[in-house]
Structure formats: C-alpha cells, structure tokens
Amino acid sequence: MIFDTDIFIWIQRGNVKAAELLDSEYERLLSVQTYMELLQGAKDRSQHKYILDFMRDFNFKTLPLSENIGHRAAIYIEEYSLSHGLRTGDAIIAATATENSLTLCSSNTKHFKPIKELRLKVFKPY
C-alpha cells in the first residue's frame, strides 16, 4: 500500500488508528512527492532527522517519479484541477499509485475520489 502524506501527519499527532494501520501493513510505500512534502514540512533539523529515522525504522520504500507517472499526473491535472481542485502534489501521488497498481491510503478523499482508476482506501482518523 502507498500512504498519502496525511497519514504520516496523523501519526505525528499521536493518532493511534493511523499507527495501527501502518503497523498492519507489511509493504510500506510512499511516492517521492510524499517524501519531499514530509521533509519540507519539518520545522528544524531534529524533526527532519526524526522523519528520516521513522521512514528507515519502518522500512518505507520511496517510489521514484517516472515518465509515465509524470504523464498521468498531467492528465489528472487537466481533468480534475478545475472541477475538483486537484493540486499538483496530489496528482503525482495518485499517478504514482495508479502506475504501480497500488492502493492509496488517505484521509484526504476530496481530491482523490473523482479519479476513477485510482484504488483508494479511505482512512478515518476518528
């Protein structure tokens, strides 16, 4: 399963359900977009290190961008940015999941739901 950035944020906030979800998955994947969003959101070097250690300790694999992912993300922007407010980062995350035939886990369903070919697992933090 590939995890959206928001799942990591829920875990950082101490959400037990998010931690249990992560714990229940053997294969833990994230897009390079999520990786960059997490690091960019760090407030200081210690939080930056915490994020890197967390991803290493829980054996996360970062999936790289590819030409196909970029192409699919651009199509998603064309189709869904005006009608549903899809942003570039979410388009890349969705395209990464779709191109790798993976289920995306996210609590942010507003932007992802319209993408028909995306397999989406909705996380409800409460």
Structure characteristics:
alpha/beta, 58% helix
Description:
This protein has 126 residues and is of the alpha/beta class. It has a single domain (2-122), classed as Rossmann fold. The chain contains 7 helices and 5 strands. The strands form 2 sheets. It has a 3-stranded parallel sheet with strand order 1-4-5. Strands 2-3 form a two-stranded parallel ribbon. Helix 7 (109-112) links the parallel strand 4 and strand 5. Helix 1 packs across helix 2 and helix 5 packs across helix 6 (88-99). The relative contact order is 0.20.
Can you give me a brief rundown of this structure?
With 126 residues, the chain is an alpha/beta fold. The chain has 7 helices and 5 strands, in the order βααβααβααβαβ.
Please indicate the percent range of residues in DSSP E strands (runs of 2 or more). Answer: 5-15%
SS element count, helices: 7
Radius of gyration in whole Å, from Cα? Answer: 14 Å
Remind me, CATH topology? Rossmann fold
* Domain count: 1
Query: For the record, what is the CATH homologous superfamily label?
Result: 5'-nuclease
Low-confidence blocks of residues? none
Ends apart, CA distance between termini: 21 Å
The helix/strand series, from N terminus to C terminus, equals: EHHEHHEHHEHE
Structural class: alpha/beta
Give the oligomeric state. Answer: single chain
* Overall strand count: 5
CATH class: Alpha Beta
- Architecture per CATH nomenclature, i.e. the level-2 architecture: 3-Layer(aba) Sandwich
Strand order of the largest sheet: 1-4-5
Helix percent reads: 55-70%
Task: Write down the overall geometry.
Answer: globular
Mean pLDDT: 95
Largest sheet report: 3 strands, parallel
